[in-house]
Design the sequence.
């Protein structure tokens, strides 16, 4: 299956195999095929196409760490989990050759859930990578959860790729372009060019007051895609919210609860949740709070997203089609990472002096 996103009004409205699907952090149950020991040719083609199609920018933007190295994968443990259908996180190690983004030790431990999901890095692909050199795109949490801090980024099979000069060149080029975009962001997106800038700013200001916060969130979400540029432009805002709470309609297929309830601490955290609700994109997990490093990475990811939307639509409101992931973060890892973030937030709150 291949995903596309239709860009209308300069913002991505995501489609999955012809129809809209729901949003973020639900337990995905469809299309769970057992993998063979080697990935199928179609899976290999899809993995390669992520880079060949020039759509590597989301993975680069979503990654806290990008490394090359040799993998030591617990193949027998993964096979037992697949055979028994008793799935869990496995840990594997990477002997790092080169750090392309972020910070990493010579040996990096990564965790991956054994259950096949129909998207993301498959257990078969991970087993096949054992003993081989690869490039890995990783996210990193601020605190360990059951000994895990690093996971594959982007819910894309391209998060694990064989090392080749072509892929390395593409990654380095994209990293350079993203650094330039972030450096020049304020010049690329001046407030005077954004019609809803002042309206969105007024609503964001209202989120810092407990009496007006809930209505302001509702109005921001109600503005929809046309307000996304202004929200991203104003996202770098660490002011505390009036109340550490936001509830959004859960649009996920087979959602097990009607609302997505989060506990953001500051304006940037809440805007991350609203932007994900509107666009289906995810560039971090700060909707339940996070470290300053996590916040900056997430804000940077949204800024890169806005730049690419503008570039791919020629800077206008024309309609274009660009490669895109599935609407919302519906993977098992996404659900678990969100749950981890909530637990980590509770721990941070408990550690605060009364």
Sequence:
């Amino acid at each position: 299956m291949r995903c596309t996103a239709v860009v209308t009004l300069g913002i991505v409205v995501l489609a999955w195999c012809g129809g809209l699907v729901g949003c973020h952090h639900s337990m995905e149950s469809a299309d769970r095929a057992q993998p063979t020991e080697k990935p199928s040719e179609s899976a290999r083609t899809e993995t390669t196409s992520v880079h060949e199609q020039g759509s590597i920018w989301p993975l680069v933007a979503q990654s806290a760490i990008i490394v090359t190295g040799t993998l030591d994968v617990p193949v027998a443990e993964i096979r037992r989990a697949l055979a028994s259908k008793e799935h869990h996180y496995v840990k594997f190690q990477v002997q790092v050759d080169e750090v392309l983004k972020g910070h990493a030790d010579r040996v990096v431990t990564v965790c991956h859930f054994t259950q096949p999901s129909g998207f993301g890095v498959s257990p078969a692909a991970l087993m096949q990578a054992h003993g081989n050199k690869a490039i890995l795109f990783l996210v990193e949490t601020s605190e360990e959860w059951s000994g895990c801090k690093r996971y594959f980024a982007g819910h894309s099979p391209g998060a694990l790729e064989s090392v080749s000069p072509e892929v390395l060149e593409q990654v380095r080029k994209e990293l350079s372009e993203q650094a330039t975009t972030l450096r020049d962001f304020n010049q690329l997106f001046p407030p005077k060019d954004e019609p809803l800038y002042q309206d969105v700013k007024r609503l964001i200001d209202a989120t810092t007051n407990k009496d007006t916060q809930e209505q302001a969130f509702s109005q921001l979400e109600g503005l929809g895609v046309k307000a996304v540029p202004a929200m991203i432009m104003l996202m770098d805002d660490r002011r505390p919210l009036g109340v550490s709470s936001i509830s959004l309609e859960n649009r996920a297929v087979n959602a097990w609860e009607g609302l997505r309830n989060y506990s953001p601490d500051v304006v940037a955290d809440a805007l991350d949740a609203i932007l994900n609700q509107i666009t289906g994109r995810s560039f971090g997990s700060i909707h339940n709070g996070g470290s300053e490093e996590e916040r900056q990475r997430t804000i940077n990811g949204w800024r890169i997203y806005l730049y690419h939307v503008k570039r791919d639509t020629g800077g206008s409101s024309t309609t274009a089609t660009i490669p895109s992931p599935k609407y919302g973060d519906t993977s098992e890892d996404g659900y678990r990472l969100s749950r981890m973030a909530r637990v980590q937030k509770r721990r941070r709150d408990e550690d605060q002096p009364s």
The chain has two domains: 27-173, 181-350. The longest strand covers residues 89-101.
